[in-house]
Automatic annotation (TrEMBL), chains A, B, C, D:
Gene3D superfamilies: Tetracycline Repressor, domain 2 (1.10.357.10). It comes from Symbiobacterium terraclitae. InterPro entries: Homeodomain-like_sf, HTH-type_TetR-like_transc_reg, HTH_TetR, Tet_transcr_reg_TetR-rel_C_sf, TetR_C_Proteobacteria. Residues 33-52 bind DNA. Residues 10-70 form the HTH tetR-type domain. Keywords: DNA-binding, Transcription, Transcription regulation. It comes from the Bacteria. This is AcrR family transcriptional regulator. The lineage of its organism: Bacteria, Bacillati, Bacillota, Clostridia, Eubacteriales.
Length: 203, 203, 203, 203
DNA sequence: CATGAATGAGCCTTCATTCAT
DNA sequence: AATGAATGAAGGCTCATTCAT
């Protein structure tokens, strides 16, 4: 007899996490109700308690699931250190990453709940730390190689990441009309053509 | 059944708005309860309804009170157009402004509730629009004068404002340990010495 | 110098009682709020407490003002005992009386609150008692005179008053469509031509 | 946090409706609180919201449940048209029906809330319409058969139903002392012996 | 594995009432 | 004579959570 693959095994847990992330991002932790999440996941509110001890944990799990996803990308690019080329690629990837739907959900959540929920903040801290730990030696190396001028790596980070964040927040999250129509590439190009040269050593 | 403190007739409305802003920033719209806000303002929850029709309106009023406060500063500096000097001053002032307690409260609220509350988003949009309307001609003028190279003013805005936002969000709102100890001046200096030169025309 | 008649002295108390009656009839005791009544009377809610000790008393006063107004009419007609002629006149007057706006307000209130408010019920009891006290001897007299057949005066009362009440309740208070268009006169005529003959002794 | 009585799974919904009807009749819609109703039904106030979307709907459901219960009786009696005999029976049944506890609750509610709540009024309208639709041809038929004299069926209705309503309202709802002790039979007899003969054609 | 039924706690809101002015 | 400001008490409703089935 043939194996019974049956219709795709409904991964309830994943479905719930998915619905949860969506609703937490859309309405915030308090305003998103268990009932709503459950409905979106196709189960009953009571069912949530089979998979998670409580709403708080469901929330954490949903966020954890997606925070830190960008770290491997950074790892790859810094490891294969091709200098400025890697940096350019990194900026491109970062911009694309934070333009993705799920990333924006997480970002929304982190910006909204991070300031008041230690665990959320911590998750973001961990992620940032991981990235900076890889980026810092990379930048130091570039400085030593005379490719960029000596700066506090944290400031360099802000200078490069800030505009990306600004673009995502103003254009996507707050949807400021004036900022609509600015392409991801335009932002990255501006970084590459303006900020990056500024970072280079005066000849 | 209803005694009442008397003596110095304080500005209840202002006190309530103050407490409201504080608590909304600290806990979010949903999590901040009327009772809490009232207590912080030294009145009863019922008193809130004497001054505002409901929680929602109190919230809006509290936010409106402080959104847009930075606009006059931009107006002053762009009007007295002293070129790059004005821009430098503007960056310094912006950094200081968003480091102020009240501004950070508003920022927290806007980042948290803006994506889901049209009125909040609109308030921020209006503010940004006002600033950009003054900044755009200013930048165009600088381009015409050959002081900076030709760029989309919106991208210039992102390049300059992004790092400020990044600093405030990462260092102050999310309190990422790695970012602690970075002074406002350092950020502004980095902008002035790195991004700004990058904006200048190639010699 | 001429007398100073000034603009009609605002009889606040009367205005308040008026507004109160209107609103109590329209929305019921609980649903009619002090603020509403006050607004309708052109004063502040606090002002009500200058004229009445509390909402309850205002309510009673408003009802008392108008309950029993029909008694004098009955008194006149039974005193000047012109037999059946008086009875006919009485029915006509009763029908007209309860068709009047204020009477219907009171009736609405009595039917709604009477069953649960002893004072209201009592006011109605007193009124009914007064009427029956005058009507009973009148009917007894008519029986003795052989004008109507011997019946329990209370039943006679029901037979004659019931249809009037039915008309007012069904047509005016509940506004049953089917009953619209029935004139007061038609009801009175039916009573005079049908019930009254039935009351007469068999020839 | 939420234990619960179990054992005989009683019909909660019915129990709630029952308690609701009782309390709404006794204290009116506004004055009857959810907590009270719930207590009377042996559940928590929150449980009401499991079965009904809100207080208003609970109210409607409770009333609807019992309005119109008398219609089938009328149907039976008019269908099996035994002329005046049927009418006599109908009056007897009507009197008994409206003397029943539940009917009086509903009547209280309709008289109290009908004038201000369209849905309640409508329910009563529908019921009355149903009855009149059966009664009208019945009366026309009796007229045609020369059993009663030609009258507007609506007036005939008032003449017969009015005294019943009067009896119930004055004796039972308002509990006017003077009207106590009047038996249902006495009212029906009066109708049969006085009003009915009046309705008959003059010989 | 999932649900239906139910609850306790708490929140927003309304309202009658007070009292200094 | 009347009001503005404020309150205490309560009410309707929501929601996370539980548990027997």
């Amino acid at each position: 007899m043939a194996p019974r693959p049956k219709n795709p095994p409904p991964d309830r847990r994943a479905e719930i996490l998915d619905a949860a992330l969506r609703l937490f991002a859309a309405k915030g932790f308090e305003a998103a109700t268990n009932a709503e999440i459950a409905r979106a996941a196709g189960v009953t509110a009571a069912a949530l308690y089979y998979y998670f001890p409580n709403k708080e944990e469901l929330f954490r799990a949903a966020v954890r699931e997606h925070v830190g996803t960008f770290v491997p990308t950074v790892a790859d690019l810094t490891r294969a250190d091709r200098g400025l080329e890697s940096l350019r690629e990194l900026l491109r990837r970062a911009m694309d990453f934070f333009t993705d739907g799920k990333s924006q959900m997480v970002l929304k959540i982190v910006l909204a709940e991070g300031p008041r929920r230690p665990e959320i903040r911590q998750a973001w801290i961990d992620q940032t730390a991981a990235i900076l730990e890889m980026l810092t030696p990379f930048i130091m190396h570039a400085i030593a190689a005379g490719q960029i001028r000596p700066v506090d790596p944290r400031l360099a980070f802000m200078l490069l990441q800030g505009p990306i964040m600004s673009a995502v927040v103003l254009r996507d999250l707050l949807q400021i009309p004036f900022m609509q129509g600015i392409e991801n590439d335009a932002v990255v190009d501006a970084l590459l053509e303006i900020t990056l040269p500024g970072l280079m050593p005066n000849r």
